[in-house]
């Protein structure tokens, strides 16, 4: 069992904890800092030599923000960069007023280029993140399919499954074993133990054979989404994930169905082994 647990421990340990500042706030603060640096560099270049395209310096923070922090901070960098260019580098200096119509076009073009670049950078970041997520999930599923086969009892199967789910989705996960309508075992990962109302929601999910979403009637008090895992005979199971209701992963149900199918096969194998053992 120790070997089974250790294989998924590294991925499970990556479940996010609360940061001192939300990532979005950090992105906007970093964007401000990068625009400040770009402004200093642009002023230095402009004071030393005459460069017609000094405004392109402000495109660099837009690209970095789009790749590192996402679309919001990238758009913010585009707006802030256009304002900084107008305030510090166009006449009259240190004012948002614009005397020369050519500068209006330059500022507008800088903003438009910033919008296009931020969109491209964000799309590239999303594709890279999606590819990395698929690769990690494939590796976790591959490891889980091996580990669940060698688990030597139902509780070990449930424990391995809960670790795999937590590693797949980076959220607290729980696997409950249910016998004759009663929850007989709860295996949770991520520090979030199901409450009584959530145990009832899990049983309802199994009885109805349907997915129960957190915060939606009749499971308004539940923090977990629940998926039933019915087995041919004997012990059934329920999978629970404490997801962000506003940010559920793509293909969530498909991945959970794969895990649920492997879980059902492993539990059925345990049941068959127990049934055959007295006759051996």
The percent range for strand residues is: 5-15%
Largest sheet: 4 strands, antiparallel
Instruction: Count the domains.
Output: 2
Which series of helices and strands comes N to C? HHHHHHEEHEEH
Give the neighbour order of strands across the main sheet: 2-1-4-3
The low-pLDDT segments are 1-8, 12-19
Looking at CATH, the homologous superfamily of the largest domain is: GAF domain
- Number of DSSP helices? 8
User: What is the CATH C level class of the largest domain, in words?
Assistant: Alpha Beta
Main structural class: alpha+beta
CATH-defined fold name of the largest domain: Beta-Lactamase
- The CATH architecture of the largest domain comes to 2-Layer Sandwich
Description:
Helix 5 (101-150) runs parallel beside helix 8 (252-276). 61% of the residues lie in helices and 9% in strands. Residues 1-8 and 12-19 have low confidence and may be disordered. The protein has a four-stranded antiparallel β-sheet with strand order 2-1-4-3, with helices on both faces. It is of the alpha+beta class. The chain is built from eight helices and four strands. The protein has two domains: 7-130, no CATH class; 151-279, Beta-Lactamase (2-Layer Sandwich). Strand 3 (225-229) and strand 4 form a beta hairpin. The protein is elongated and about 90 Å long.
Set down the secondary structure blueprint.
Elements lengths: L1 H11 L10 H26 L10 H10 L2 H19 L11 H50 L3 H16 L3 E7 L2 E8 L6 H13 L16 E5 L6 E6 L10 H25 L4
Antiparallel strand pairs: 1-2, 1-4, 3-4
